[in-house]
Design a protein that fits this description.
This protein folds into three domains: about 170 residues, no CATH class; about 130 residues, Jelly Rolls (Sandwich), CATH 2.60.120.1390; about 180 residues, Jelly Rolls (Sandwich). It contains ten helices and 40 strands.
Length: about 550
């Protein structure tokens, strides 16, 4: 009996440790080992290839991304093959059907877990009600998402049976052999399901971690004025917030203030800021004051908040500069904790940089239309050791309304459209530690965020623990603000990281039409490496706002 109780305690501890990776932002600052990897298996178009003999990319813009697989085994399509220990953190699909998804754990000859692919999202276990876990497994504007973790110890193979549907993502992490993980059976046990129900509540109550013990300072900034705060010693910022009496401003004034008040943070007496972002974009939305909540950032009726964990060993310097012509009045709120110097020295530093596309020393010719790397557009280019943790994407996609009327919706459907306007067909591609072919190759920008079918309006606004769409016109014509956070499924790198997303539309396309990307990646990087991103100028930041005005 004692052995049974000890085994139960061990299982509970392993489940608890696994779920901590889903909510504990402190873990993002830990230095990854070379054995820790992350990537995504997806249904991307397999005609996109890298030719090792020539060093060239072939059919890089191919877009038949609904049913790509690794190989066929009898009547089953193999879609995932991994050596453990590891975890499937995220499963996504735009069109799951009744054909089965099959999990072969640790070399099994027959799958120990098999159910319809659609049923996997709707009722992951026979012991769970059809309501399942709405915050861990949300459906976001047409996209089925599951963050119900699927751990494995030695190996994992996933297959689909016939009529499984179309489109899939499986995002995973693998760990050193010494990593202790529960089994998937543990996750589906009574104790595991109770732990998942508790996690679902944590996700539901996500948001502002404001504490009454936090420091609060008033600000009244005219154009050109700066608010600063700083500290010496070693520690970690655990919370940042900005309070604005947003009801006193008009919508256009809020757009102006949130885009033209620039947040800069320097760590360890470095002269180059590791954070340099307009405050609206830093907290996860642009343009304007748009309400939403995620685990790490959000905007509520009380304040803009950020729960990122941000270590330093030789002080920090925070600066807010008002570059708008309006007076910006509000409160700056922050909290921090002390850390032992030796510990803080061995933690990664938080980075966030707003940009409109920086290729740095990459061969830019390869990325122009008609060349081998088109339509890749850079989200982040980083060197050294670190973790990629997601991105805020502001897309200004504006087009002249077509003269002819469509038969369906606003502009038609599928191939019967009065205008081909959609910006988000582009796949995400992550190259880790010098990879020639990306270990993450997605199926579309909205698929990466977690929703689907975005070429066909109308559009729902949504938020969740790891993804949000806080702004988008109901017909898609105008500003889109989306964010995807990679917390449990962060991408570790030890020497380099390059993240791209395909951008099919030029900044100016058609007659009087515009498609501009403005991105803010979030990542952690080793202390000794300074990132390459420079501060964007005022004209560039306000290009989209002026166009709308």
């Amino acid at each position: 009996m004692l052995d049974v109780i000890e085994k139960q305690h061990s299982q509970r501890e392993l489940v608890s440790n696994l779920l901590e990776k889903m909510t504990n932002l402190r873990k993002l600052a830990e230095v990854p080992t070379v054995e820790e990897r992350s990537g995504t298996f997806s249904s991307y178009d397999r005609s996109s290839k890298y030719d090792e003999s020539t060093g060239h990319y072939i059919d890089w813009a191919a877009n038949d991304d609904g049913d790509g697989i690794i190989r066929q085994e009898n009547d089953e399509s193999v879609v995932v093959e991994l050596e453990g220990p590891g975890v499937i953190w995220r499963v996504w699909s735009a069109q799951p059907q009744e054909g089965n998804i099959n999990f072969y754990f640790d070399g099994e000859a027959t799958p120990s877990y098999s159910r319809s692919f659609k049923g996997f999202f709707e009722q992951i276990s026979d012991d769970v009600s059809p309501a399942s876990f709405p915050n861990v497994m949300p459906k976001l504007s047409g996209g089925y998402n599951s963050f119900f973790p699927i751990p494995f110890k030695k190996s994992l193979k996933i297959t689909f049976s016939k009529n499984w549907g179309k489109y899939y993502h499986f995002t995973y992490s693998t760990y050193p052999k010494s990593e202790r993980l529960p089994t998937f059976a543990d996750m589906l046990s009574k104790d595991g399901l109770i732990a998942m129900a508790e996690l679902d509540r944590v996700f539901y109550h996500r948001g502002d971690h404001f504490s009454k013990s936090a420091y609060k300072e008033e600000m009244s900034l005219t154009q050109g004025q700066k608010f600063t705060c700083q500290s010496s010693g070693s520690g970690a910022i655990t919370y940042l917030g900005v309070e604005i009496d947003y009801e006193r401003y008009t919508s256009s004034e809020l757009q102006d203030i949130l885009r033209n008040t620039i947040l800069k943070i320097c760590w360890d007496q470095q002269g180059t800021p590791a954070v340099s972002v307009p405050i609206g974009d830093f907290f996860g939305t642009a343009p304007g004051y748009n309400l939403f909540k995620t685990l790490s950032t959000g905007i509520t009726e009380k304040r803009l908040y950020a729960n990122w964990y941000m270590p330093y060993s030789n002080g920090f310097h925070i600066e807010l500069e008002n570059q708008s012509q309006l007076v910006f009045e509000g409160n700056f709120v922050y909290d921090y904790e002390s850390l032992d110097l030796e510990k803080s020295e061995n933690l990664l530093r938080f980075h966030a940089k707003w940009h409109t596309g920086e290729f740095f020393d990459l061969e830019t010719q390869d990325f122009t239309e008609g060349e081998q790397r088109w339509p890749d557009w850079p989200m982040l280019v980083a060197e050294g050791c670190g973790r990629f943790c997601g991105v805020h994407m502001h897309v200004y996609d504006y087009w002249q309304t077509p003269k002819e009327d469509s038969q369906m919706w606003w502009y038609g459907q599928w191939d019967d459209k009065t205008i081909d306007w959609w910006w988000g067909e582009g796949d995400e591609k992550f190259f880790v530690d010098g990879e020639k072919f990306p270990s993450t190759f997605g199926t579309g920008s909205e698929d990466y965020i977690g929703y689907a079918w975005a070429a066909e309006p109308p559009y729902a606004l949504f938020d969740s623990a790891y993804a949000t769409q806080s702004l988008m016109p109901v017909d898609g014509n105008g500003h889109t603000s989306v964010m995807r956070l990679q917390i449990c499924d962060n991408v570790p790198f030890t020497t380099s990281f390059q993240a791209f997303i395909e951008k099919y539309k030029a900044n100016s396309w058609g007659s009087g039409n515009t498609c501009i990307h403005e991105f803010t990646p979030f990542w952690y990087q080793e202390k000794k490496v300074v990132d390459k991103y420079t501060d964007a100028n005022y004209h560039t930041r306000n290009l989209t706002l002026k166009k709308e005005g």
